[in-house]
């Protein structure tokens, strides 16, 4: 009897071991490796690489403290929506996610609520300068406000001086100076194409003429107005008088290259173009003079309805499917501490403009006169979706490039202004109906 029991016990043990071994072989993961935890973060590929390097360093430092492996993946910003859609569909992927525009709203039901952490971080850093960024449709934070990327004018001051002109303050000034720059062989460079810069700048122009895509309820489409039509007409004049047709195919890098190569005389862009010129020691064509010395930044232009510009709002969220939600929250708490924020801001050379009040007048902005605009540009800067909040529908209109496409159609004479605005209205209404 004992022999029979021993045989049965041995058989069961062998079957259990075999099943376990089969599982290991099928997964190709040793038992020890299967138990290891890895905190994964996905973000856009930053235009200032040192910013990503510092973020990765902080993630690795926190991982050592928390006893987890870490991984940071960087993806080109225009490719991120497709990556996120795939992760949401499969309910797997990364733990921490960098979000922009209306993505906290669009993916709210897939993102962890972060109200308590937002309050904690805000209280220790003087509060938040923006109360909209990161909120979902129900008003809860689905992303922690991280930083915004602003769009001042970047202009060749030497060329303006050669023309006997002054730096432009209004869009009419931009048009006047831009015509002279183009005649000199140094055109204005504003994308009318599928790029984030184009989405931002063209919204700023619409707002500066008193137009808007939606009402402040964030739901009622309001683009079809005489103010918007006039903004479209201005963009056509700007394109025909001050730019070249290459802007119709530009991405977010081309305007930087145009300025730093010495061709463009004026663009609207974050400080990345200037910083790249300084890093690469790009020269004014035909001289030994570094071109960054004659590039300056000034406030976005004023229009008939005031000075307005869109900004790239960035937030950080946690996917609900993450098995490491508490660890991910711990990293966010760590990253938003003063020491880490200081290092991240410095690594970006001021490109990342934090939403935390304590950093609004950071010494880095006084370290270089080319950054003087930074503490003040937020007064004139809005999130896409303004005067309403950025929503899921905002995000889908953004990714469809409705405004750049209809602006380009009018600028190139394919549609008159009224029909171009009507086309934009029809597309936006359809997106808002489907998004809900």
From TrEMBL:
UniProt cross-references to Pfam families, sorted A to Z: SBP_bac_1 (PF01547)
Signal among keywords: yes
UniProt cross-references to InterPro entries, sorted A to Z: Bact_solute-bd_prot1, SBP
Subcellular location: Periplasm
Keywords linked to the UniProt accession: Signal, Transport
Gene Ontology, cellular component aspect: periplasmic space
This protein's record includes keyword DNA damage: no
Major location category of this protein: periplasm
Domain of life (superkingdom): Bacteria
Family: Belongs to the bacterial solute-binding protein 1 family.
Cross-referenced PANTHER family: ABC TRANSPORTER PERIPLASMIC-BINDING PROTEIN YCJN-RELATED (PTHR43649:SF34), ARABINOSE-BINDING PROTEIN-RELATED (PTHR43649)
The protein, known as: Sugar ABC transporter substrate-binding protein
Organism, as annotated: Entotheonella factor
